[in-house]
């Protein structure tokens, strides 16, 4: 049966390697009836597919896969879906879904959405996308491939499923060039060209389909999930609940440089290390590229990617790989505009230069900072923008920050990320991504106070300043 199946696979333009085609043939054998004849070729029913997949996929996705497969009949397109799935239909469907071009994948998606050849409505594409995203979480949980991340359980449709589906749908571009950006467009028609263009540009759609098929059917050929779901690393004895769930991690990770997608290691968590800017400054610098995450008191989750190590110094740092992002209430990534180079900034202990952490600002310049024209005694950290007007700013008075945009931030073109322009937060996390540098004190130019946040904190509490801060030579980039 395997050899005849392989010949049949070739006749319907299978794109599988020989060993892959052999497994597809064996899978069809397991699904199809043992009884066959010339008048009744082998096929399988929805019940057989449900029985084989079991609880690996949600029932609605199993039904979609079955409808898509039985709708494939290139020889008799006018007759509509068949009553069961033949080997030819199964082979061609699997080939399209796993190995196909954007056109072939979009062909299968349309069959999974509707049995007719009419253009589908945008709201039907929305429902399919939500089912696809939900199925991804379901199958990774079922196969125990969360790589250390927990999936938060909530009653009803998970908000992050809807948020990621909405983000993917924002890439739908109608025939007139208009994007799907609101509920008023859900009754618009999406013809095959629209769906093909969407699958080509929203690459996560094809990725999610591939994972759902591989893990749903239990295929044995290799599928590397490391660039989709990074390994979560937290030091022993420091387990905690992150502000991110699995889908948030997958979305942000998809925008990182590929060489940094395989692993996230926790550097700082306010839950574990306290609400202390001194602790933050002691743990974060000189560790390599990292992600900064905040959840404000209104439940908005947002942050930024620092493309290189944070350094405590009175100048902007980073490069055009940096970006800001939002996770809740909506998912979006905001990349550099080229307007300025105010990518990231971290300072602490200065009396005449802004202190804190920043990501994107809208007034002033780096020369202003170096000249000390912005007089303040507050440490700061942030990304983008200008002094007192950052896209994302964390104040030395830990728990306070701001996100300003009128209407967007100049460095990243980001809107206001927090619920309120000036916000308060209790949860903050910093994750180093990729392979941590773990630089040593002897090579970093840091003092013992840099390595010991507790000592820094005690010094600050005593009211004594660190006069050498800002005057030591900045360590070399690693």
What ranges have pLDDT less than 50 throughout 5 or more consecutive residues?
A: 1-11, 351-355, 360-380, 438-448, 451-455, 457-478
Q: Rg, please? A: 26 Å
Q: Kindly state the number of beta strands.
A: 17
Proportion of beta-strand residues: 15-25%
Q: Main β-sheet, in a few words?
A: 13 strands, mixed
Structural class: alpha+beta
**Helix content range:** 25-40%
- Kindly report the average pLDDT value: 80
Quaternary structure:
single chain
* Straight-line distance between termini: 58 Å
Number of helices: 17
Shape: elongated
In short:
This protein has 478 residues and is an alpha+beta fold. The protein has 17 helices and 17 strands. The radius of gyration is 26 Å and the shape is elongated.
